[in-house]
Design goal:
Alpha-lytic protease prodomain-like; 8 helices; elongated; three-stranded mixed beta sheet; mainly alpha
Length: 299
């Protein structure tokens, strides 16, 4: 069973605290070294804080029940936090590039980086643990906001490792240009991360269908539990945050009573909800004589 909304809100609130701690550690590492690559890493952590705040607000809105103005609920609010995060990532990448390019043109030596490296490494370890928790909870709760936050934090971990390698290489080899060069690579990496988040979120906002594996399972459940029905056609699905909306037409014999048709509908809904708790099912019942007779799923 997916985590309750209160649990996901608690995780999101914890994410803000962790992001603030990591931000402080990374700026401390930059202050200790003067490394522009570590500075770029710290700048990205500002985005982590903003993203964590956006995710928390989005989850609060998404948890609201359906109302007269939003009869399908508020679950799509989670996608907006991911889109906002993508925009912030672009701004961070621009800031990193503005700082790194002048240093790349006029490289400067990195001063005594080792203590700063250890501080940055500790921040990265904390980020790795928290990103794993965010991704695990996001998948279990099917939360786009938590998944977006988790993926971004995990990309931050990968970026930090690359930055640390570059800083150490610049110090050991004396090739000072490696430091700003790694900073520019950081900018490109987070731009790619931002593009992926925006792409996935736009898919949700555009009512993209479920993936082929999930649709195949839906078809199998309808077939397994559709005894008494003749056909299911016009199956349509879409995501809205943690919710999945499923619609289809159910063809029954023209002589079947409303009560019997309703029993089949209840059985199908129960079977679907047993595997996918956060769903909304709409079934249009048709008598055999009025059916379109295509897209057969249940025989």
């Amino acid at each position: 069973m997916s985590p309750r909304p209160t649990a996901t809100l608690t995780i999101a609130l914890g994410s803000i605290f962790v992001a603030l701690v990591v931000l402080g550690l990374k700026f401390l590492a930059y202050a200790m070294t003067g490394s522009v690559a570590l500075y770029s890493d710290a700048l990205e952590s500002i985005i982590n804080v903003a993203a964590a705040v956006a995710a928390f607000i989005a989850l609060q809105v998404a948890a609201r029940p359906a109302d007269a103005n939003h009869p399908y609920g508020h679950t799509k609010a989670e996608y907006f936090s991911a889109v906002a995060e993508g925009v912030l990532i672009v701004l961070a990448a621009i800031s990193i590039a503005r700082e790194a390019i002048p240093v790349l043109l006029a490289p400067r030596a990195v001063d005594a980086p080792y203590a700063g490296i250890l501080v940055n490494l500790g921040a990265s370890a904390l980020n790795a643990v928290w990103a794993t928790l965010l991704l695990r909870t996001g998948r279990a709760s099917r939360s786009p906001a938590l998944l977006a936050d988790g993926r971004h934090v995990m990309s931050d971990v990968v970026t930090s490792v690359g930055v640390l390698i570059g800083v150490v290489a610049a110090k050991l080899t004396g090739l000072a240009f490696l430091d700003p060069a790694l900073a520019l690579l950081v900018a490109l990496n987070i731009l790619w991360s931002g593009w992926q988040l925006v792409r996935d979120s736009v898919g949700g906002l555009m009512d993209a269908a479920v993936d082929s594996k999930t649709e195949g399972r839906i078809r199998a459940l309808l077939s397994e539990h559709g005894d008494g029905a003749l056909e299911v056609h016009d199956l349509r699905t879409r995501h809205a945050g943690r919710m999945t909306f499923i619609e289809f037409h159910l063809v029954v014999p023209g002589t079947m009573t409303v009560e019997s048709a309703h029993t089949i509908c209840d059985r199908l809904e129960d079977a679907l909800r047993a595997e996918m708790p956060d769903i909304s099912v709409t079934i249009h019942v048709e008598p055999q004589e009025k059916a379109k007779h295509h897209g057969v799923l249940v025989l």
